Structure formats: structure tokens, C-alpha cells
Please model this.
Amino acid sequence: MTTEMLQVIRTDGTVQKKLEPVLDGETLKRMYRTMVRVRVLDEKGMLLQRTGRIGFYVPSGGQEASQVGAAAALDAGDWIFPTYRDPGMVLWRGASYREMLAHEYGCAEDRCMGRQMPNHYAFRELKFVSISSPIATQLPHAVGAAMAIRYRKSKEVVLACLGDGGTSEGDFHVAMNFAGVYKSPCIFYCQNNQWAISVPVKNQTASENMSVKAKAYGFPGVTVDGNDVLAVYSAMRAAVDRARAGQGPSMVESLTYRMGPHSSSDDPKRYRLAAEEEEWRRKDPIDRFRKYLQVQGLWSEAFEKETWDKAREEVNDAAHQVETSGPPAISTMFEQVYAATPAHLEDQKKSLIDYLKTGEIKDSGEAFPL
Ligand SMILES: Cc1ncc(C[n+]2csc(CCOP(=O)(O)OP(=O)(O)O)c2C)c(N)n1
Ligand SMILES: [Mg+2]
Model:
């Protein structure tokens, strides 16, 4: 794979002036805060899993710049078809820790009421579509949504997210082909974090990189330094502008690294070297952006402390709140699938509730309150 890529912030925090996007200080600080919020959520998510409070967690440490830079380049009305490793996108759009953790717990406050896999949340009002667990199935959905936008002559664009592993799925190629032919207002955004669980990217493709694949489908592709939030922002902004102007899709590949395990069920020590992890740790996207803010005179010790302290306080409060919210009522099992519950489900619901009232299942009141 080639390492040629767009970089705006050099590793020492200085900037390539000609490439620097025009963003005001408040927006830059908000980007930094959101990146920190992703890292803090990660720490808490893994801790909750390791202490048995939640069953599963997917960390995304190392990919904060890739997530936040991309989300910041979209308008609030644009659609995101995410992967399970995109919390920075939904945090950028204003999702709260409480809502996200409620989903991890699958508690009464969880919008999915414990029915979706943990870490697969959905935020309808933020146009953040329910996360698909089967790799790359969201890509044809995203192109379909983009086509609907075109038919309606509307101006939104669609972000179709995937990982390096996702490029090996048929759905990826189907979606890229269709989007290219019909000039869908869609951006394929591949966070190439070097690994698909234990499969290294060199076993994923014989192409020189991922973004070159766009050429075969008739639209542009670009590779950016995914640990440089401004490079991600700039490339994404250009792709978004192009899609919004009716010029069709683009592909953006961000070269980044999953610093932690694939999920709380994975142990990366079994398949990758500590030296590689260390090398990427030195490219930490939060450190890089902090250096940039320092060079810009936008950073202070007080800002740093407040950013981390506030995020940690918020995440701890959120965990406490959702812990005490209890599990979803068992009756919800029959709800929200049909607009009007069919008679046979009403019957099943009634007989289940009657059965639970007999007390034959002693602990059901605790685990499944009516
Ligand atoms: C169709 C399908 N095959 C296999 C899996 C199991 N699986 C879950 S995540 C994953 C790796 C995906 O890697 P990548 O696309 O690079 O995303 P990353 O996890 O690195 O963010 C695999 C193989 C799945 N969820 N769906
Ligand atoms: Mg990957």
C-alpha cells in the first residue's frame, strides 16, 4: 500500500498553510472537545465491560480525528450510515453520554429497548441511522437514501461509512457501482485502521490503497492522514460540496489505527506486535490536534483540564443514571414493531403477562418488570 496521503497538520503541530481549512476558534475547540469525549467514553465503556456492568463494548481510540473531522464537514441535515466504530460522529451531532450508555446497558431508557446489539445505537433525529452489524450492508442502504434525496431534488448528502474490511464485501462494490452510474450524492468513507479484527490490511486488497478503487467506478477517491482532523475535514468538505452540487459520489480513505482491541471480546496481542501499537500511539490524533491548538494560541492548561474533567464527570453521572433506570418492561417486547399490534401478538402478550402473574417464574419481577 502507498502511504501518499493528504496531511494538513504536521506531526509537530505546525500546519501546511495552503491547505488549512477556514474554521473559527470555537469550532476548532469543539472538535477537540468531541475527540476527548470519544476517548473518555471509550475508557468508561471498556471499564464497564471489564467490571461486568455491560456485556460488550467496541472501542474506537485512535480514530477520533477520523470520526470528528468527517462529521464536522457535514451539515446537520445530512445523513450518516455509520459502522459500529463511529461514536465521534454522533457525539459531534449532540448525542449525550446518557443516551449512548443507556443503549450499552439495554435498559428502560434505551431507545432500542435492549433489542439491538450493544454499541449499535440509532439516533433518528440526528439522522444517524441504526448501525448494521453485518459488515457493509449499510452501503447499499446509504446509496438508496442518496437516490431518494436526488429524486426529491433535495440538497442533503449521505455519508456511507465502512472499514478496510468492508471493502472486501460484495455490498461495497454493488453500492460503489450503483452510486457511480447514477451519480448519487453519497460519500464512501473508509476508515482504514489497518485491521479487520485479526486480518491485516495487506490481506484485504491487492490495490495500492483503498481510495484508488473509486476510479474503477468512475468517481474520485482520496487518501488522507486519518489522525489529522483537519486533513479529514478538508477532504470530506470537498467531497460533500461535490455531492451537494450534483456532481456525484466520492470516496475518502482515512489512514488511521485502532489503538485498542477490536471489541471487548478481542485480544490483539494474539495477532499484532506491541511495536506496531507503540508506533501508532506516537501518532495519537488527540496529541496532534492539541499541538495545533497550542501553535494557534487556542489552548491553555485550564482548557485542557476542564475538557477532560467535564467529560469524565458527565460520563460517570450518565453511567450512574442508566444503572438505576432498570430493565425495559417485558410488555415492550410486543411493541414498536407494528404500527397497530396484530391480534395474535396482543394474545401472546396477554398470555405471557397472565403466566408471569402466576409467580411460576420466581425472579421474573426483578429481571423483567411488567
Ligand atoms: C458479513 C459479516 N462478516 C463477518 C462479520 C464479523 N466481523 C465483525 S467486525 C469485522 C471486521 C471488520 O473490519 P473493518 O471493516 O476493517 O472495520 P473495523 O472493525 O476495523 O472498524 C468482522 C469480520 C460481520 N459482522 N459481518
Ligand atoms: Mg479495519
Observations:
- The pocket of magnesium ion (ligand 2) is lined by residues 163-165, 193, 195-196 (CB under 6 Å).
- The chain has a mean pLDDT of 94.
